[in-house]
Amino acid sequence: MLMTAKDYMESLRKLKLNLYLLGEKVDIWVDNPIIRPSINAIAMTYKLAHEPENEALATRDSILTGKKVNKFNALFSSTDDLVTKIKLQKILGQRTACCFQRCVGMDGINAVFSTTYEIDRKHRTEYHHRFREWLKYVQENDLCIAGAMTDVKGHRGVTPSQQADPDMFVHVVERRSDGIIVRGAKAHLTGAANSHEMLIMPTLRMREGDEDYSLSCAIPTDAEGVTLIYGRQSCDTRKLEEGDIDVGNYNFGGQEALVILDDVFVPWEKVFMCGEVDFSIMLVERFAAYHRQSYGGCKPGIGDVLIGATASMADYNGVRRAPHIREKLGEMIHLAETIYACGLACSYEGWQTMAGNYQPNTLLANVCKHNVTRFPFEITRLAEDIAGGLLVTTPSEKDFRHPVIGKYIDKYLKGVPEVPTEARYRMLTLIHAMSFGLVAPSYRTESMHGAGSPQAQKIMIERETDMEYKQKLARSIAGIDERENVLA
Amino acid sequence: MLMTAKDYMESLRKLKLNLYLLGEKVDIWVDNPIIRPSINAIAMTYKLAHEPENEALATRDSILTGKKVNKFNALFSSTDDLVTKIKLQKILGQRTACCFQRCVGMDGINAVFSTTYEIDRKHRTEYHHRFREWLKYVQENDLCIAGAMTDVKGHRGVTPSQQADPDMFVHVVERRSDGIIVRGAKAHLTGAANSHEMLIMPTLRMREGDEDYSLSCAIPTDAEGVTLIYGRQSCDTRKLEEGDIDVGNYNFGGQEALVILDDVFVPWEKVFMCGEVDFSIMLVERFAAYHRQSYGGCKPGIGDVLIGATASMADYNGVRRAPHIREKLGEMIHLAETIYACGLACSYEGWQTMAGNYQPNTLLANVCKHNVTRFPFEITRLAEDIAGGLLVTTPSEKDFRHPVIGKYIDKYLKGVPEVPTEARYRMLTLIHAMSFGLVAPSYRTESMHGAGSPQAQKIMIERETDMEYKQKLARSIAGIDERENVLA
Amino acid sequence: MLMTAKDYMESLRKLKLNLYLLGEKVDIWVDNPIIRPSINAIAMTYKLAHEPENEALATRDSILTGKKVNKFNALFSSTDDLVTKIKLQKILGQRTACCFQRCVGMDGINAVFSTTYEIDRKHRTEYHHRFREWLKYVQENDLCIAGAMTDVKGHRGVTPSQQADPDMFVHVVERRSDGIIVRGAKAHLTGAANSHEMLIMPTLRMREGDEDYSLSCAIPTDAEGVTLIYGRQSCDTRKLEEGDIDVGNYNFGGQEALVILDDVFVPWEKVFMCGEVDFSIMLVERFAAYHRQSYGGCKPGIGDVLIGATASMADYNGVRRAPHIREKLGEMIHLAETIYACGLACSYEGWQTMAGNYQPNTLLANVCKHNVTRFPFEITRLAEDIAGGLLVTTPSEKDFRHPVIGKYIDKYLKGVPEVPTEARYRMLTLIHAMSFGLVAPSYRTESMHGAGSPQAQKIMIERETDMEYKQKLARSIAGIDERENVLA
Amino acid sequence: MLMTAKDYMESLRKLKLNLYLLGEKVDIWVDNPIIRPSINAIAMTYKLAHEPENEALATRDSILTGKKVNKFNALFSSTDDLVTKIKLQKILGQRTACCFQRCVGMDGINAVFSTTYEIDRKHRTEYHHRFREWLKYVQENDLCIAGAMTDVKGHRGVTPSQQADPDMFVHVVERRSDGIIVRGAKAHLTGAANSHEMLIMPTLRMREGDEDYSLSCAIPTDAEGVTLIYGRQSCDTRKLEEGDIDVGNYNFGGQEALVILDDVFVPWEKVFMCGEVDFSIMLVERFAAYHRQSYGGCKPGIGDVLIGATASMADYNGVRRAPHIREKLGEMIHLAETIYACGLACSYEGWQTMAGNYQPNTLLANVCKHNVTRFPFEITRLAEDIAGGLLVTTPSEKDFRHPVIGKYIDKYLKGVPEVPTEARYRMLTLIHAMSFGLVAPSYRTESMHGAGSPQAQKIMIERETDMEYKQKLARSIAGIDERENVLA
Fold first, then answer.
1. pLDDT digits (tens, 9 = 90+) for D159-195
2. Out of D9, D244, D486, whose CB is closest to B44?
3. Collapsing DSSP states into helix, strand and coil, what is residue A250?
4. Is residue B267 within 8 Å of residue B88, measured between CB atoms?
5. Does the structure's ipTM exceed the value 0.90?
6. Chain D within 8 Å of A323 (Cβ-Cβ)?
7. Measuring CA to CA, which residue among B88, B50, B90 is closest to residue B68?
8. Does C328 score more than 90 pLDDT?
9. Exactly one of B59, B115, B125, B190 is catalytic; which is it?
């Protein structure tokens, strides 16, 4: 059953979240103006599954059940599946101009699927079977799953079990016959308060002694012991104000929460890894590869909106054809498309896991993400260049609507005569939202830290490279090893 | 008489500003929590003049009166004066971590001083004398002057007099025996609502037909017909909330306003240019050179705070000595100091105008500012890299103070054990303020657009270069012209 | 019939080229030490076709004849064909560390194939048929074809027919019943003196009046009236010296020639475009897309050799594990793989022409090449960083072999004790060859100018972008157009 | 006595160098066509001292003797002296378009001067007195001194005394009553074969056990036991060919040699440090600061020639006013001037040593040089962009002069009609010389490695920064430490 966007929202109302926002417990959170845009963004993933022109990208027949499921809950069963993932993400980025929050779950599902298969092969466990059953349930109910990986980590130079406070990484504090008790916290969990369940995964390579921390399991977002604390966002309270201009992106937004797991019970059938320190890194890296690929889809899509907005500002200012403006817009496109090219390439060059689903090419997925830690910043810089200083000095919408001074603003903030001041206003606040405001973290911080910070990719790029082969090539050309005889 | 910071604030209370903020007229604006930090920032320029260790930088004996005056109201009478300007600005940037708003006035004063001298020489006018008188008054009362240059500009491809609406550039609408009537608006006027008077200057090269737009004069900020509309700032209303953490930079901030001049009367003794289209560009370029120099002082100072905050986050996370962290911190310092070097160089290489005051080297001042349109963005990107994703996902201070969930936050957002969570919190919100929030425009947008957008500098760099000489060098080396005989 | 590398060389000996090198006519050019490495490089394209492990990449069944032909003479009949092209080019770059010169022909063949089809459809001409016949002949004889596009161009601001000298672009000077007479010159024609025939193509958009310049045809490299003047290369005469170290890349090299066409007769059956000004730009752009794609294959391959050589120097100096070295090597890999990703992406996203063969995605092919105009320069800079200053100060091989001073060099230029000085020597000269010497143009200048200079790509990127769509997205998000109702 | 350029050349003829070049001992080396351009470049430093318009920059009254001496042999006795050094270097870079090789000596003289003073103060030695005497001799005879710092270094991860071969760093092998015996080699010693004496300095921080390696002394270049092996340069043998075009920079060039010290005797009066391991790093760092400053002078000067040549090529191609060309030329100027600004800033901000001479600001000198490791590469890339592909494919001058084919070249390589083909030829080969050929190392490799590789500057930048102060600023603004009360 594929939910509509409306169904999805109704389904959220049934959750009994223990959710805090700005120091207060929020009960009717689906309609909370600060939270609602982030729900809208996820809802878009449900909507596209019903759009005839996007259905092929947004849905897939489940390889578990044969039934049509939402792409975000599907297993990638071909490189083509990886490619359509990227194309879907690009459209969603274009339609929301922000993080639509559902990729972590999709990527986590695929990583846990293949990793549990290999754990079971080695350790004769039954995680993979459990996971398939859970996934069928998720697919059939079209649930939204939040991937939960990043621990709060405390002292970054110390392993989980050696931290001064043993709870700095999520871990098992008790093993019972019916399940386990879990404690800890997951930081900046994307889409936490919009999802039905969380898929818990470890955040780094575990070593001997870290057995309690090598944990993967599923937990409903409203399970007992779960507390969600909504992260502050730049300009968040503008959503509480009258009017719709100052917010910039009125409809859509991202969402992150600090999620506290205070002795949460998880039944065994929802436990997918528990103590296998040797597989923690496999799960982390498989997830990371998927998620680094993902940014090759969503960020070019978000970038398209920023490019379009910037070109519009140039139009409204009457300078669109100035050579330096064209040069800068061209550069913005070039950078956004370079990211997209990397997203496509790592997808097309994917490989099949032992469990049967597909992974993107690891090296190229890391290259993709590493570019994402750079180019959106330059694209934003160029947008700020073209938008002009007014970007950060526009009076408020209330001033614009004011009976006395509104007319001054309308008169004096006009650009070319044929465009209403309000259009220019709106375009400025959209760019502001993307560069400073509500959705700036979706395009900037997430590009930097989502799926691992830049250094994490550098390490993988080094590791995935066959340097010995490159050195062999050099030695042969240099004549240190025997040179190739082209006539032989 | 050098005012203290306190005197300055009291002096502001006497102004009868017609000021709007977030759609409401503000009467007691000095104590308005949104506005106050920007007043504090300017107040710092008064404070330093009384600090024994900074007095030498922050004050100067007036070449008009021989009395000690605040540096921001002084004429630069040597290259050393230009250098101390830069060093003073660096300290102020370090102490406020934001725009302290008084440089536009200082730079405008110096530019109008020398330009009026040359206008008078050519046109036998008396602007320079008037200006000296006004400046003496400013110096003696230690007033704060807002430089007012940027017009709202309408269609950027059209000259002032050809705009569909003739008011898109400030202009004279009536010449009377006792003075002139002025109409128009100045956009994002830095420090407008913290200053006693505005020094109006034209914003671009005027041509025949633009006579009414070639205008420079002084107008009290509370003159009749003046309306100030405060620009919205990212996260501005956080200042209205309880607590002092979420704001990031609680004490200091920038300020810009849209200033409407609705038929304002200016007596002739405050008019410094009126119709001399041939001198408009000189005034613009002299001001631009000063102001492009200025950024070689303030931005390295602000950068120092961001670098210090970023290093602190690395400390708090326990990763300060990691090679990639050191590399990135080193890069941040390198970029900030490159800007500072350019600021110093253009100052030391200054030149004396006909009027006797000093200008920075035009080419190098433009080079300085052009680097400013790039490096703070990269410095900020690196700060966001090292700060981590928590930068945009920390719960609010209210959550942190909350009786139920506060303890979770305190426990889980701790970094290394020896640093209190609150310190980490505060450092994160400071970086947030500088990269997304209240003072981000001070470090990013102003770096881009203040004193002219990047393209403006590129044009000046091209013009100030003696390309023919460079080509001659090349022709000689290449043997197209006669080669130099080194033995001759 | 697929020639072996040896067959290919023998076939060259039969050509009667009118070839000049360093001011002298060269008769036995196949064995000329300056020219031979470039022949070896092309020979590698013949060799790979016979290697079992590379045959699948290096050959293809002709869609014209069904027979197996060399990939460089094949039509791309699927996106997979475009992808294998990239992968083949990467291997060839790795094996030769230079330009292997045969891609221009391959790309030209495919561009002329589809363009002639469309000319014929519109103008009812018979070019496509002629071209197929010629291509069959080329395939069956496994000829090497030099693509000849770049005209000498004279004054770049003036159209072909308006040049002071009408011969600055290759053109028809006489139309006869049996064929045409052609005059002009093609500049820096890659592989000209290693190829059997040249495929002449126009170099830019023609306009009315340029009919004589809208020309495509095939001309044997040894046809009467053809003169080839070999371009000087950095350090070219090192190949004439004793020893094999100083050259750096002893076996392989690129080749460019200035080709003069002094009233060359071309029979009609080898004329593929003659006067159709409206199709000139189609041919240019189709070729450009192919060739911009190509650089996504060869340059990452060449880059691999440089990366391997650089890592080896770090080994030889004992600093391979130093963090800053690892960071820089990681960056080199990242940049090389970004190019490769772009090469793959534009290939996978190819499209079918009316004639049936496949073009790469135009936008992404341009993005690919545009990155190529940047990244190899940075990769080279990093190689020079790690290699150390000795890169440009090593004594000559003759010094190294000298009975008196050789022992000094052997002693003092040693790095880590376990690596012979000679190995370090050879690695240094290889890097020198790639950064300054014989093959530096293959990695640097060609990356810049081959397939069009950077500005050419910027123009295409702007043109291939659907900016109106991006602006529509922005207007919807901003609420200027109606916002999307996610629940609808 | 200030020698003229001619005197200088004659003085060189008197030296009995044991010099090898391309495997042969060179006796009449002053007239050797490969070596001569590097002599011309140094000769220019003598010439300028006699030019009325440059005398003020190029000479100075000695603070030792009161007599006028060449700037290159002078002590910097004010910040103004440091500034004129930069300005002189810029002119020399402009006049030679290459390394003029005499700065290492000048910088070494100043570093040894102040370091010996401080050694003597601590160790009660008499180095400083000896050094003053030697310097008087150098000044009075107007000798050219080669600074000799870089050891060959062997395994870079191992200290001098721990190397497998103890000679990998220059060291004392015997102490005698009349002097010391020295062994080892100095790598890529700039201007070695053009100088009268070498000033030996250690290359890195010495530690206990490295006493024999903590060595500074003066050695005539033709002392017994000294062997000079000339480094190969890109395209070096072009200087042996007929004609003057292909060389690119016919008159001037750099020079580096591997200098072998095979048990060379040095009398005590020429020994300036011998065993003081605690002062080795002071000497290294003082020299490094001077030499990193130096690049802020010469490289902008060389850059000017490249910029001029590039603009000329744009003229010759008829595209000088194209917006993208102007943008790129503007960028080249911007980068070159940024370096110059850094060179000036660290000079103006210099400080006085205990010995009385002046050092540039250490932090800013390192910032200067670090930019030099980047910007010349980008400037060169842009030059290659604008110059066009012909840069690496021009036929040889011999082809151009050839009776048969010369006319083709003259016809077809013409750009705009009004510029002779030969001028375009010459400009291309000049750019080639600077980007690939003879003087490319002067602008590229030296910029990278001269005065220390980029990582060396990064380390110094980190060390010279007062990070604790920056962190204190951040803590105060963030409210972790007490916030500043602006009204206090």
1. 999 999 999 999 999 999 999 999 999 999 999 999 9
2. D486
3. coil
4. no
5. yes
6. yes
7. B50
8. yes
9. B190
